[in-house]
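FORM 12-B: Structure-to-Sequence Request
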């Protein structure tokens, strides 16, 4: 008789090739865990699954079993992992949404629009794996504003929510998110000052889109192996301030929590709170089964918002709202439009926006020659127009060191060509170096500059031509003793412009062209970024 060995694989959810799905449930009254298997509109409890058998050269048989986490697992016993206890049918998606929103409003003080966002986000979390990108749900506030209550109430009814605390280690966070693949719930304050913060940032940066795992080296024997960890999934966050990383910040749908003079919700959660949350999780499991494999993203549900990142991440939310009802879609749309305006206001306070305006001021006045916009000239215009705005500006940032992430704070802002050059790089505008320093090759980068002008609304008051031809390409500077006016040039004549255009075309290997041909060549350069061989910075 061959030797039989059983290998157990523990999971909280499983999708099968036949289109069926199994979800783990925990039944506290029996202190048991099991799978609830759903296929073709029907479901039943299954304690485990036989995934397959393998026989080696010695005739030994390996039986591979899929099992739920045992009830004595620390993740179950400590309440770290929130699961349904069974399944309960609901009447309509609209009715389920109202029950969730009422539950949230009972225990957390939120504006009505964000309470709606939170309720829809909870429902979205149960079907999140049918979307390609997700937003994060976040509240910001100081001590005593209700952030922890928000995490407990909203996070506690999201799909397989994992309540991460400050005692969690990096290894356990990565392995748990990879195994459970549910909703990650955390208070940033528990991690910000720890060496784990850089790992948390990696999870947040990679967790918004499908197919973006975090790669880590894991010890094995005397060496290491490369392992990819699945981190995609909903995230419910609480923090005291915005993220320094603007890309990460834009992934969050955020509500500012304020101190309440009169508390209108229970100070302590009642004894029946967990039972109430469990009943909602059971209904939400029925919602997941009903729409498993049947969710379609509906771009028509998106409101008129221009920010591509916000559109991408919000599509999952608006598509879920579309399942609930058109009135909810409308409420979500109004919130997102207002939220986009607030993002624009945040952008306006960014120094990079003022750098763009300084560039546009120079181009508008045609104060450049040889298609080279010098960084030192941009710095000069920046200082002239914005110096007073930055004299007492407090500059904050985050830096990753060997000891972890640390914050820096300064009450001065250094307006130097080096600083301006750094902002220009962050705007993805290419710079080139020659014997006189760094400059922007206008012809190649003009398309980017026009896009930035449109993004920040400058095109409404600064009119730029489709193709940039400097007004003083070969003109000479006026003689002036005032150093501040040395960047002013005598406007070039039409004949000088035409001659300069010919010289430019010859410099990039196109030879002589008529005026119309010259414009066509400029368009090619602008669109494709071609040009003479230069040293890039």
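FORM 12-B RESPONSE
SEQUENCE OUT:
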């Amino acid at each position: 008789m061959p030797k039989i060995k059983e290998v157990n694989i523990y999971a909280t959810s499983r999708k099968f090739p036949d289109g069926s799905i199994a979800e783990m449930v925990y039944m506290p009254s029996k202190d048991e865990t099991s799978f609830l298997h759903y296929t073709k509109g029907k479901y039943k409890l299954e304690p485990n699954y036989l995934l397959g058998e393998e026989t080696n050269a010695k005739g030994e048989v390996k039986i591979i079993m899929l099992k739920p986490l045992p009830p004595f697992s620390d993740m179950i016993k400590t309440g770290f992992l929130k699961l349904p206890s069974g399944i309960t049918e609901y009447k309509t998606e609209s009715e389920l949404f109202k029950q969730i929103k009422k539950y949230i409003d009972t225990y957390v003080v939120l504006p009505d629009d964000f309470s709606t966002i939170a309720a829809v986000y909870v429902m979205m979390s149960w079907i999140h794996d049918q979307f390609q990108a997700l937003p994060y749900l976040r509240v910001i506030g100081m001590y005593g504003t209700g952030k922890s209550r928000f995490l407990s109430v909203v996070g506690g009814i999201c799909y397989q929510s994992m309540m991460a605390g400050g005692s969690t280690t990096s290894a356990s966070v990565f392995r748990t998110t990879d195994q459970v693949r549910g909703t990650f719930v955390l208070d940033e304050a528990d991690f910000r000052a720890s060496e784990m913060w850089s790992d948390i940032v990696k999870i947040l940066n990679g967790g918004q889109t499908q197919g973006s795992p975090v790669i880590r080296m894991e010890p094995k024997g005397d060496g290491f192996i490369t392992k990819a960890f699945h981190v995609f999934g909903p995230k419910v966050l609480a923090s005291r301030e915005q993220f320094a990383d603007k890309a990460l910040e834009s992934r969050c749908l955020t509500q500012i929590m304020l101190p309440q003079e009169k508390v209108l919700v229970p100070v302590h959660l009642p004894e029946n709170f967990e039972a109430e949350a469990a009943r909602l999780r059971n209904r939400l499991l029925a919602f997941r089964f009903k729409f498993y494999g049947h969710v379609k993203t509906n771009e028509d549900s998106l409101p008129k918002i221009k920010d591509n990142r916000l559109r991408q991440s919000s599509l999952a939310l608006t598509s879920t709202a579309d399942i609930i009802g058109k009135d909810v879609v409308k409420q979500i749309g109004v919130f997102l439009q207002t939220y986009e305006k607030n993002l624009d206001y945040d952008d306006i306070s960014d120094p990079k926006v003022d750098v763009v305006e300084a560039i546009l001021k120079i181009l508008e006045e045609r104060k450049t020659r040889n298609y080279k916009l010098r960084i030192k000239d941009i710095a000069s215009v920046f200082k002239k127009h914005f110096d007073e705005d930055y004299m007492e500006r407090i500059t904050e940032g985050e830096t990753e060191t060997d000891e972890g992430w640390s914050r820096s704070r300064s009450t001065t802002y250094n307006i130097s060509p080096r600083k301006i050059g750094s902002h220009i790089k962050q705007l993805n505008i290419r710079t080139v170096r020659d014997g006189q320093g760094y400059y922007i090759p206008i012809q190649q980068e003009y398309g980017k500059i026009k896009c930035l002008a449109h993004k920040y609304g400058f095109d409404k008051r600064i009119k730029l031509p489709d193709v940039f031809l400097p007004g003083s390409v070969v003109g000479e500077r006026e003689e002036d003793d005032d150093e501040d006016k040395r960047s002013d040039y005598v406007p070039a004549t039409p004949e000088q412009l035409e001659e300069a255009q010919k010289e430019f075309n010859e410099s990039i290997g196109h030879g002589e062209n008529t005026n119309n041909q010259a414009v066509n060549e400029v368009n090619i350069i602008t669109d494709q970024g071609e040009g003479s061989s230069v040293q890039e910075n």
